């Protein structure tokens, strides 16, 4: 401060003239000034000086990083050399073949692959190679196994479409996946795929990679490799393929099973046009050359599946593949099929006299193991499985769920119901035979399959209760929320319907039909939510009572010599006829009808289906056929008959007249039959008298004749 006096340091001697009091004053002023100067100093001046930093060596970290990278590279190379040997990519993939066996281990069906000879991309016509490059990997000759531009393009397209529409895999990556990896879509698999692609690029030339890819890729119809596909679809070698043929084959790679031209020629041709457009866009073809390419034709024959193909094998194969996982080697899967029962089913169906009608039969154990299946009269002519794939109306076999709902509601077979005409809204159900019995028990109504009783019962217990009963027993197809469902108006497969009856047999629901011997363990969530439910004993006994009564009612044609339970079903206009039932440890469903859903006059569930069911059960269970009952003879009092000389009873000698006949017994035991004397003595009615009687009958008033029940 300029205008302030600054005292001298305390070390300076005081002036000689200053007194002691003056010295004390000066010292105090000096101390105050010192304090003021300390307070006014900048805070940075008061802070301690920082310690000098240690200089870190950046080069040391670079050396460490290179060392770790080299170690990881050595580990990766060793891992690839072991898990992805280059020699493996030279070979075509092992045929993904599955052999299905019966429950006794005997092979019943086999699914294999057609493997073509390896090709050399360098010797193929340019347009053949260019077709694959244009649609699969245009920058194949410029990238190192992974195409960042392709990945970015695919990611952008997939983001815009909201799903996986395009893939960014190069041909090298596809070879890596086909030859060394499975088909899952996890991130770990994609990383391994990329590493193997870089490995292949480092050790193989581009032509070698392309050759191995074309030799291994799948083209549909169980054909692997360009050689097999060229021969199968066009009957020629790869070097003879035209531009259009090469484009069609290149287009199949995206979705070979769906686009196989033997089953989807239109789809294959549309994809061919896309490939030709890609070849033009890539500069492999001129626009004029692209316009000249025409839609291709293929050979009409699909790969032969017989005798490997059967209805049961077709049904169980997807489940077998799921159980076996990704099949790359020969795999054997044991099924539940019983060869003896299968032969019995085929034999019974063959001799059923079906004419133009088709047939389906399913036989299973109460726990759902399918032991026999017939999906039609002739697999070679029609592989469509009518036991599993067809959805038809079940008719009165659906009444099982109506009566189950009634038993759950507290009714019993002895409860009564009105078997009289009824109107529910605009619906007026009628009994098929046009007869009505009035008040009857539920047992009687079920035995005679009364439609009006089932309609009334559905109305009483509620449609929702009937639907719940069907759902509980395993019916998964849509069921209309209306009273008509009680008569079987909703569609269902024979397999599901048979499994529902199996649930009654087992007293536990639902029963899941299965065709494999080994059952996969369910996860904890499925165990908690999808477990089986035991049927109450009272309800089970009541349902057996009803099903047994039906065998003695409309199902008389299915009668066998052991306790049996079942139900008939016939749809409107006799379009479908069914019989489903069980005996001992076998549950069997039979359907008969036309594929075009046309009428079969005279067809009913108690006719051909019941007889097929009966004949199959007799053969399967090893039981004798039902013996026709002997004629009933009225008891005769032996004391009323005279005894002959030999001790036997004899008819009296003479004449016996009655019932319009005259029997005359001679002394030698001969019997002469003639017209009754009463008839002979009755005067004949003259023609004029007969006409008079007819005129008299016509004059009777109408209200005096026999009435008709309304």
TrEMBL record:
Keywords: Carboxypeptidase, Cell shape, Cell wall biogenesis/degradation, Glycosyltransferase, Hydrolase, Membrane, Multifunctional enzyme, Peptidoglycan synthesis, Protease, Transferase, Transmembrane, Transmembrane helix. GO terms for biological process: cell wall organization; peptidoglycan biosynthetic process; proteolysis; regulation of cell shape. One of its GO terms (cellular component) is outer membrane-bounded periplasmic space. The keyword Chloroplast does not apply. The chain crosses the membrane at residues 61-82. Residues 676-702 have a biased composition (Basic and acidic residues). Pfam families: Transgly, Transpeptidase. Residues 361-617 form the Penicillin-binding protein transpeptidase domain. It catalyses: Preferential cleavage: (Ac)2-L-Lys-D-Ala-|-D-Ala. Also transpeptidation of peptidyl-alanyl moieties that are N-acyl substituents of D-alanine; [GlcNAc-(1->4)-Mur2Ac(oyl-L-Ala-gamma-D-Glu-L-Lys-D-Ala-D-Ala)](n)-di-trans,octa-cis-undecaprenyl diphosphate + beta-D-GlcNAc-(1->4)-Mur2Ac(oyl-L-Ala-gamma-D-Glu-L-Lys-D-Ala-D-Ala)-di-trans,octa-cis-undecaprenyl diphosphate = [GlcNAc-(1->4)-Mur2Ac(oyl-L-Ala-gamma-D-Glu-L-Lys-D-Ala-D-Ala)](n+1)-di-trans,octa-cis-undecaprenyl diphosphate + di-trans,octa-cis-undecaprenyl diphosphate + H(+). One of its GO terms (molecular function) is penicillin binding. Pathway: Cell wall biogenesis; peptidoglycan biosynthesis. The keyword Transferase applies. InterPro entries: Beta-lactam/transpept-like, Glyco_trans_51, Glycosyltr_51/Transpeptidase, Lysozyme-like_dom_sf, PBP_transglycosylase, PCN-bd_Tpept. Residues 118-279 form the Glycosyl transferase family domain. Coiled coil: none annotated. Residues 1-26, 660-710 are annotated as: Disordered. In the N-terminal section; belongs to the glycosyltransferase 51 family. In the C-terminal section; belongs to the transpeptidase family. This is Penicillin-binding protein.
